[in-house]
Request: fold
Amino acid sequence: MSELLPQELRILVAVAEARGFSAAAAALGLTQSAVSHSVHGSEAKLGAVLFERGRSGASPTPAGERAVGHARRILRLYEVMGAEARGAARDGGRDALGGVLRIAAFRSAALHLLPPALERLAARHPGIRPEVRVVREIGAGAAGEVLAGRADLGIATLGGPHGTLPGLLTGVLTREEYRLVHPAGHPDPRALPLMDWDENCGSYTRSWWRAQDWIPRATVTAEDDAMVLTMVGRGLGMAIMPELSLREATDAVETTGLGPGGPVRQVGYVTTPESASTLAIRALIRELRSGNG
Reply:
């Protein structure tokens, strides 16, 4: 099989992101025929159809999704190679770390786990420019962003029902217990309706919940954990929430432990083997671990 050239990889990524050959051509400054010819050539080299063509544009096939993810990651390594080489050439190589560092994280992790680590990272390596994107921890979540090549490292919930996505490396940063959250001073919080949010489906508490006869089915669903906290504080219900979410709790709510058999979740970093070997990712992982060891 012939290897794909960097320009062929860029075209695959552009078509996937633009969802069409014409739009990709315009973004790259190429003709549509050049883009179409390149994609056909890539498909021939890989032995798989990468895009479904239709009147509405082009969408990646499952093979295409995998190929585009690899393409993004390979192109990203070209960027990192340049950044590390330039860094090594500066000041005798005393600090070879520089360039953009792309991070994906779910909301509460982005608010509470990342900032202290990034502060320490910036103090030691001012040439690194973090770009943090908040993603919903639903489905593949932050780990999916890493696998797709859109992030170098993700902060994600680990050990879920679907396991770790193939081809990724993980490390645990913190282990969180869940607590019952209810309006402060309420005489019977377990009588309140249960509040929930979509991302909480990734917290792997459902089997535990089903075994508790005192927990009703969720009757109120909010957009995110911050909204749940606000609504609980206004006396509208109770919730079962992890520690990271509770760092934003006010005096309007109280929390109660769920006992030794209560649900827990692990939060950690997710990256690829190739990214794990880069200087910036290694430095970020050190800072994340030092703040959560």
User: Anything to note?
Assistant: The chain has three domains: 1-93, 94-174+267-291, 176-262. Residues 176-262 form a domain with the D-Maltodextrin-Binding Protein; domain 2 fold (CATH 3.40.190.290). The two ends are 46 Å apart (CA to CA).
